[in-house]
User: Fold this.
Amino acid sequence: MVKIRAGSAADAAQVAAVQRESWFAAYADIIAPAVIDRVTLPDNGARVRQSFRTRPRQRMLLAADTAATGPDASEVVGYALYGPETDVLNAPWPHPLTADGAGGRVAELYALYVRPAWWSTGTGRALMERVLARTGAAGYQAITLWVLRDNERARRFYERAGFTPDGATNVLAGLGDILEVRYCRSLELDL
Ligand SMILES: CC(C)(COP(=O)(O)OP(=O)(O)OC[C@H]1O[C@@H](n2cnc3c(N)ncnc32)[C@H](O)[C@@H]1OP(=O)(O)O)[C@@H](O)C(=O)NCCC(=O)NCCS
Assistant:
């Protein structure tokens, strides 16, 4: 059983472990294993903490295993990072905010990862529902995300959550020229 709770930089080490495990499982046929190894090298959460510094308006939601006990138990089984939309297409990392992001009109889901053992248990959906509720309540009118073109499982998941591709594409040179596509979803209520 998982509960969704707010996370912070204090959870960075567990979040980084979830990221590494899910990258190896989800991207094995898309990104070279040596690249995955390098990009997710265990660092006790330093990169995740850094992401809070480069994106001060970033928020994190965690899916926590309510049955996990003991000092070594891995409580965090999934996480979502979101905040204002960033300008992925026109400026290098760390991407500045777009005008719609800075103005609080368009949000971005920066990351959504679930440990493979917890896939297909509703964990991702629970995280997504909370992200949509939080960003909608914060007044954003739409939310975007970037997903690897060949990540079919995640694309299906996002389409079920109401996202559609908007035609924008981007090449991730640092990962070996991997193509990602942008999805978008309205947050406005159907009245
Ligand atoms: C993509 C990912 C986050 C989805 O998480 P998940 O916990 O497996 O997702 P869920 O169990 O909530 O959803 C999957 C199932 O719920 C159902 N579902 C999810 N959202 C739904 C919705 N909004 N409406 C109806 N059904 C839905 C689907 O039937 C699906 O069933 P299936 O997996 O048995 O085919 C997860 O697979 C993951 O971490 N993948 C690797 C990392 C990744 O690719 N992240 C995206 C990077 S951009």
